[in-house]
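HOLO CASE FILE
Compound: iron/sulfur cluster
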Amino acid sequence: MEPLSRDGFNQNLKIRVRRVIEDYELLKEGEKIAIALSGGKDSVLTLHLLNEFKEEFKLHLVAIAIDEGISGYREKGLKIAREITDKLGIELVEKSFDVEINRKLDQINHLYKSSCVPCGVFRRYILNKTAYQLKADKLATGHNLDDEIQSFLMSFAKADFRRFPKFGPKLQQIHPKLIPRIKPLWNIPEKDVGTWAVLNDIPVHFGDCPYAQHSLRSKIKNYLNKMEEDHPGTKISILKSFKESFKSKENVVKLVECDICGEPSSLNVCKACQMLEEIKYS
Ligand code: SF4
Ligand SMILES: [Zn+2]
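Model generated. Tokens follow.
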């Protein structure tokens, strides 16, 4: 087998990402794009690619890094986020659970069956709030093909149909305070993201979160990887099956402003405020 050419791989990757950007109109000229940057390979690749499209689309880029307060894990990612934004000349805004919600994830994770639940709720909350304060037009995340399929199957397994409109490479703005999300790596398998980082010698944080092993996502991830190994093409087939519904989906969720914090929410009191109430005495 011929060795993989770095330039050929990079070009092919960019072509696939461009296809998603064009097909789903992820970017418009002159937009301000906030990028959720954890320092992991997916968000670092998203940052690099958007930086490559920066001139063509006349983008203004700003990265947002969130410190959830996971001791021994998040520090490494944050260090990479600082180094990479410094190298590319992109502004980095740092936020933390500690300051924003007055608790580190390490202090509240025992209250939940899975640490990923409060982690995801508060991270999305802080990201949206920060992107809104920065007057960003879009919020780009590093979700890749594997993440998307895992999320879909998780919602499917829990019959959480309310989440279905949240799939797809671009989420429409359904509330003035909700910054539309875009996922440029939507059709890129996780292993290609890893290959990109290795071929280009990009410093990324490869470590696993200490809480990840107990999550439903991790179990689904292992199952899907096994399926892909036994039946190559399974992942892309699952995505294809849902593609049409993503394209034609009508976003039916109606959002209001949370009675407590004013952030957009499908409930009168948003999930983050409900959780803040739960952890008040912890
Ligand atoms: S694995 Fe779970 S707890 Fe760890 S960073 Fe991801 S969402 Fe948060
Ligand atoms: Zn709220």
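CASE NOTES: The two ends are 57 Å apart (CA to CA). Residues 6-23 form the longest helix (18 residues).
CLOSED: yes
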